[in-house]
């Protein structure tokens, strides 16, 4: 387990999946969901080379059919530490025989965590090492304890505040597939009060259109919360398992999305893929501030 620390936060990261597993502040508050398997057995998986589910869990590329499970395989593979200091670590995962059977491309994926006072910055770098274009998606899936302080607030005491405060296009799910043709307007001019029924139809998916957006989980019961900021993601997922009344919420910046219900299964046609030219790199990042 990798540990980063400063005067404000202590962070733990697992080399398996390059997964953030713990963020504890100087008051001893644990912000990250602790992977209770009776609800959801992960903390903050990295989603690569797809986000969400493929239609029938498969796709076609160059006349061949490949199978891949939800959110891809990076989250279940070991990363190597490339560089580490007291407040920064770079982890890397590269293609291997097992990944090529699911995704026939050569790639390197680097995940960088940088601790800066009360904030943790997460960076992704994908390099296409092929002689052909590489379609892929990538995303984050961090889960945050709600409530953060058990004896001071409950799940329904929290609100979700989004900046800019405006109306967002919400893409519904016909779980596990997306239904962008039936997007609806979601009014986020005011904070959205949390309750478990919000997730009755799976995640709330907001179209961000690549605009800088901050999503904050907070409560009037105390001064503690989380703010996640992303500059250039096309989508943001907000999720908590239903009908389980799970004590956490995930805020998920996505550079990709689940297959739509009418997907034809051809990888090059897949909705919202990043098409990376040969020998080029893709970079993305988001930050979380813990207060």
Would you give an account of this structure?
- This protein has 291 residues and is mostly beta strands.
- The chain has a single domain, classed as Distorted Sandwich (Beta-galactosidase, Chain A, domain 5), CATH 2.70.98.
- Helices cover 1% and strands 45% of the residues.
SSE topology sketch:
Elements: E1 2-5, E2 9-14, E3 19-25, E4 46-47, E5 58-61, E6 64-67, E7 80-84, E8 88-94, H1 97-100, E9 107-116, E10 119-128, E11 134-136, E12 138-140, E13 143-145, E14 158-163, E15 167-171, E16 173-174, E17 177-178, E18 184-187, E19 192-193, E20 204-207, E21 213-219, E22 226-230, E23 235-239, E24 248-255, E25 274-276, E26 281-290
Antiparallel strand pairs: 1-2, 2-3, 4-12, 5-6, 7-8, 8-9, 9-10, 10-26, 11-25, 12-24, 13-24, 14-19, 14-21, 15-18, 15-20, 16-17, 20-23, 21-22, 22-26, 23-24
Average pLDDT number: 97
Strand/helix succession: EEEEEEEEHEEEEEEEEEEEEEEEEEE
What proportion of the residues form beta strands (DSSP E)? Answer: over 45%
The coarse silhouette is: globular
Computed CA radius of gyration, to the nearest angstrom: 18 Å
Q: How would you characterize the largest beta sheet?
A: 9 strands, antiparallel
Discrete helix count: 1
How many strands? 26
Q: Give the strand line-up of the largest sheet.
A: 7-8-9-10-26-22-21-14-19
Residue stretches low in confidence (pLDDT < 50, at least 5 long) are none
Distance between the termini: 24 Å
Coarse structural class:
mainly beta
In total, how many domains does the architecture comprise?
Answer: 1
């Amino acid at each position: 387990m990798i540990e980063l620390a400063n005067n404000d936060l202590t962070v733990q990261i697992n080399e398996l999946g390059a997964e953030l597993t713990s963020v504890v502040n100087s008051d001893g508050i644990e912000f990250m969901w602790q992977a209770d398997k009776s609800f959801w057995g992960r903390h903050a998986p990295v989603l690569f080379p797809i986000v969400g589910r493929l239609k029938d869990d498969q796709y076609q590329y160059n006349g061949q059919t490949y199978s891949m499970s939800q959110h891809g395989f990076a989250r279940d593979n070991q990363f190597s530490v490339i560089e580490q200091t007291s407040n920064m670590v770079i982890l890397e995962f590269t293609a291997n025989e097992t990944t090529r059977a699911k995704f026939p491309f050569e790639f390197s994926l680097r995940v960088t965590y940088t601790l800066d006072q009360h904030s943790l910055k997460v960076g992704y770098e994908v390099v296409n090492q092929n002689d052909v274009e590489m379609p892929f998606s990538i995303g984050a899936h961090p889960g945050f304890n709600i409530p953060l302080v058990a004896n001071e607030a409950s799940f329904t005491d929290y609100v979700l505040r989004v900046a800019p405060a405006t109306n967002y296009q919400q893409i519904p799910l016909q779980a596990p597939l997306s239904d962008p043709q039936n997007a609806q307007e979601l009014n986020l001019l005011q904070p959205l009060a949390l309750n478990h029924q919000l997730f009755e139809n799976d995640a709330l998916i907001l179209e961000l259109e690549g605009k800088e957006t901050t999503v904050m989980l907070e409560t009037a019961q105390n001064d503690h919360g989380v703010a996640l900021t992303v500059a250039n993601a096309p989508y943001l997922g907000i999720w908590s398992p239903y009908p389980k009344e799970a004590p956490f919420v995930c805020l998920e910046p996505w550079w990709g999305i689940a297959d739509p219900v009418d997907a034809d299964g051809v990888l090059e046609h897949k909705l919202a893929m990043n098409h990376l030219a040969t020998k080029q790199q893709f970079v993305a990042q988001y930050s979380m501030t813990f207060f």
